[in-house]
């Protein structure tokens, strides 16, 4: 169910319970059509790695998902060093917000300079508890946004951009409707679905088998 701008602004200040919604158990692997999966959504994809890398990993994540934060703090840097930077993996990161605060965080990352996107996502996951799980997430997110270059005016301009919110929702809706994403994080490795935060050993085994 998508959020309109009015609903978003009304619900952002509510306490977030997304941590309890995140997937905790690995699901049986299933495959989706890779060509369809790799078609970018209305925002375009955020990508790291070589276009001709033999393995493509697509991650659907929520910025308020504790398991997503754990993956990015514990596995992501090793994945980047061992597989993305070595030309083995092309990594695509997609929005799957579980709540309005996660949607707001994705919108801010998209409103920031394009070359800062992954840096900002990393900071958001690293500092997740300081802005996502507070009594007033709206104010906490505003305070956080000022650390990464936003003013109150640019913050509000970004979060009242209905077209951007609709596009974030469209990425989520397509992930759920076409590819069966129902928890975060969810990974597609060369089209094969894996749910839950993967350790570097688990991810590495799958990647090596796909090379």
Automatic annotation (TrEMBL):
Signal sequence segment: 1-29
Xref: PROSITE patterns: TAT, THIOREDOXIN_2
InterPro entries attached to this UniProt entry: TAT_signal, TAT_signal_bac_arc, Thioredoxin-like_fold, Thioredoxin-like_sf, Thioredoxin_domain
General function of this protein: May be required for disulfide bond formation in some proteins.
Family statement: Belongs to the thioredoxin family. DsbA subfamily.
NCBIfam families: TAT_signal_seq (TIGR01409)
Keyword Signal: yes
Domain of life where this protein originates: Bacteria
Alphabetic keyword roster: Signal
Residue span(s) of domain Thioredoxin: 19-211
Pfam family, one: Thioredoxin_4
Metal-binding found in the keyword field: no
Annotated protein name in UniProt: Secreted protein
């Amino acid at each position: 169910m998508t959020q309109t701008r009015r609903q978003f602004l009304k619900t952002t200040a509510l306490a977030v319970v997304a941590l309890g919604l995140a997937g905790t158990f690995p699901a049986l692997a299933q495959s989706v059509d890779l060509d369809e999966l790799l078609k970018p959504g209305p925002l375009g994809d955020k990508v790291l790695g070589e276009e001709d890398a033999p393995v493509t990993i697509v991650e659907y994540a929520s910025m308020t998902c504790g398991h997503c934060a754990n993956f990015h703090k514990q596995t992501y840097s090793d994945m980047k060093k061992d597989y993305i930077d070595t030309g083995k993996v092309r990594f695509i990161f997609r929005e799957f917000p579980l709540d309005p605060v996660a949607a707001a965080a994705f919108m801010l990352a998209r409103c920031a300079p394009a070359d800062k996107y992954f840096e900002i996502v990393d900071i958001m996951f690293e500092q997740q508890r300081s802005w996502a799980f507070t009594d007033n997430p709206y104010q906490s997110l505003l305070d956080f946004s000022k650390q990464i270059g936003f003013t109150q005016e640019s913050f509000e301009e970004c979060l009242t951009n209905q077209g951007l919110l609709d596009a974030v929702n469209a990425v989520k809706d397509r992930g759920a409707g076409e590819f069966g994403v129902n928890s975060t994080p969810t990974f597609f490795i060369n089209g094969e679905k894996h749910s839950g935060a993967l350790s570097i050993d688990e991810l590495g085994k799958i990647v090596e088998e796909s090379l």
